[in-house]
Amino acid sequence: MAFSISEKEDTIIALATPQGVGAIAVIRLSGKDAIKLTNEVFKGKDLEKQDSHTIHYGTIKDEDRIIDEVLVSLFVAPKSFTKENVVEISTHGSSYIINQVIKLFIRKGARPAKPGEFTQRAFLNGQFDLAQAEAVADLIHSDSEASHQAALHQMRGGFSGEIKALRDQLIHFASMIELELDFVEEDVEFASRDDLRVLVEKLMRVVENLISSFDLGNVIKNGVPTVIAGKPNAGKSTLLNALLNEEKAIVTDIAGTTRDFIEDEINIGGVIFRFIDTAGLRETTDTIEAMGVSRTQEKMKSASLILYLFDLTDTDMVEINRDVNKLENLGVPFVKVANKVDKGEPLFMEKLMAKYPETIFISAGQKENLDELRDKILELVNLDKFKTGNTVVTNIRHYDSLVKTRESLLDVLGGLDQEITNDFLAMDIRRSLHFLGEITGEITTDDLLANIFSKFCIGK
């Protein structure tokens, strides 16, 4: 979605509120002529004589025909989201009114905005960097407290400020080293190699911390894939229903009822968990059920968390030990959940508790101890780092650029150790600067911008 120079000068228009009938709708315009065009169809005060950040009541008229009574909000450049003249027209939420107003402005010279074009203009006009622009989309799509906080933190600067400051220092060293190339015969040193090493090592620590935060960031943004596993009739579907507070899964006494995956999302402590109720883990001669069991094992390998559920009335220690060993070999965090605590044999439960004290005892059918299970699940996600206000990387593009930055910085350190020539050292530094610049947008291409902003909704 690359824009030509003429397109960037256009006044654009789009519906900024969701499609459909509602009490009100907001139609947004941005561009040099946004206020002028609005003034031509608005009957009320002369908008071109009004101050920024003011709201005005009047009507929108198509010649002599009144389309609607409206409120017009003015944001005069550069005091707006896009740093251009911006007008937001609040109309009644009729789809007919919305279409009539937008068609009127298009006839007057505005053009329909492309996906993300308002935010792209804000980026191009220096309102914020590219990482902050991407956080706008994340904020709109945030569906939990954790994802909202992560997006808001990034939109307000996140790690951008620190990266920019370190990148500026690295640019200075690159310039000094390249300057030395012009004085090679004089054998002068404008850039201290010791100071450069200190800076690169500091930058490496920042980059390493950001890279290591991505696993947590991905969980915050996309949810925690959590598999409920156990043998048939352990109560997996009952537990899923209890956690969801609805009858999502079929519950019967017939073993092997769940042949495929039943999946839904649950918000626990501000984090989204994607719970997956799977086919039971057991040997079976039923071809279809066997396929379900095989796919369950694959799901478990790719999960971030496993709830290993077993029936206290129908499981012995040999089975539990065998299953626990298998789960430990998977290397995926798991919670041992003993179901039907209301029917379990006390001596067996004491024995189980002695060997596996971290076991959570519940009754899925009676919804007993589910809060304890939720607390344990949340504990294993380990949000402590996030809750202390540390920056968390949630964007795969940022992660990829950070990994490439780390590789380039390692080359710089290696070059310093080997005392390579200035031209090669400068080349490694420039490569590091390139990947850092990709994150914040100092280095970008039309294709990259098109890919990022095309994922935004129209009107933002």
From TrEMBL:
CDD domains: trmE, TrmE_N. Keywords: Cytoplasm, GTP-binding, Hydrolase, Magnesium, Metal-binding, Nucleotide-binding, Potassium, tRNA processing. Binds 1 potassium ion per subunit. GTP binds at residues 233-238, 252-258, 277-280. K(+) binds at residues 233, 252, 254, 257. One of its GO terms (molecular function) is hydrolase activity. Mg(2+) binds at residues 237, 258. Residues 223-382 form the TrmE-type G domain. It comes from the Bacteria. Pfam families: MMR_HSR1, MnmE_helical, TrmE_N. Its cofactor is K(+). InterPro entries: G_TrmE, GTP-bd, GTP-bd_TrmE_N, GTPase_MnmE, MnmE_dom2, MnmE_helical, P-loop_NTPase, Small_GTP-bd. Its EC number is 3.6.-.-. Homodimer. Heterotetramer of two MnmE and two MnmG subunits. Belongs to the TRAFAC class TrmE-Era-EngA-EngB-Septin-like GTPase superfamily. TrmE GTPase family. NCBIfam families: mnmE_trmE_thdF (TIGR00450), PRK05291.1-3 (NF003661), small_GTP (TIGR00231). This is tRNA modification GTPase MnmE. It comes from Echinicola jeungdonensis. The lineage of its organism: Bacteria, Pseudomonadati, Bacteroidota, Cytophagia, Cytophagales. The gene is mnmE.
